[in-house]
Design goal:
Number of strands: 10
Shape: rod-shaped
Largest sheet: 4 strands, antiparallel
Oligomer: single chain
Number of domains: 1
Strand order of the largest sheet: 6-7-4-10
Number of helices: 4
Strand content: 25-35%
């Protein structure tokens, strides 16, 4: 009888294990694998001018000068900066205004910025209002004749861009973004 009892207990144990194992098998699942690929982000800009880089000055005349900055498509939201550097005698001969949409950077002379949204990538932004500079009417022939290759007035324009976001929850200020570019 002992053998029958042992066989019965063994059989019942196998049935309980089978039911438990079957239940566990029914309560398990596996999903498909999701692959996350993290690519680099970037900001690419261009600065181009179609009117050349050498101009004749005639008192009172305007000179077409059309530097345009573009944030290329595929770039991230960014601060776009332009820095205008004038020769020491520039203001004695010429004048210009900054195009609409640019904001002067507080505390930094001759640096202007704008925020470029992803929807605006590929837009050409004029740097100078009406794409021109004006020769002052007060400039005389004597002033012009006194110029040499080394003393011709010049205007140097450089464009920069910096990421807009510090991290997922904070943005840079324009001054912080400029500091990250210029190192000042």
């Amino acid at each position: 009888m002992k053998k029958k009892s042992l066989a019965l207990i063994f059989s019942l144990a196998l049935i309980v294990i089978g039911i438990a194992g079957g239940t566990l098998a029914w309560l398990t699942a596996k999903t498909n694998t999701v692959v996350n690929t993290f690519t680099t982000s970037d900001i690419e800009i261009t600065l181009a001018e179609s009117t050349g880089d050498t101009y004749k000055m005639v008192p009172g005349f305007t000179i077409a000068k059309d530097p345009k900055v573009t944030v290329l498509e595929g770039s991230e939201k960014c601060y776009l900066f332009v820095k205008l550097e004038k020769s020491a005698n520039f203001d004695a001969f010429l004048s210009y205004e900054i195009a609409d949409g640019w904001t002067a950077l507080d505390g930094t002379a001759n640096v202007y910025y704008r925020v470029v949204e992803p929807a605006d990538m590929g837009t050409n932004y004029s740097v100078l209002k009406n794409d021109r500079v004006t020769v002052l009417e007060t400039v005389t022939k004597t002033d012009l004749n006194g110029l040499t290759t080394d003393t011709y007035p010049d205007l140097k324009i450089t464009a920069y861009a910096s990421q807009y976001h510090k991290n997922a929850t904070e943005i840079f200020t324009a001054s912080e973004a400029w500091t990250s570019i210029s190192g000042n």
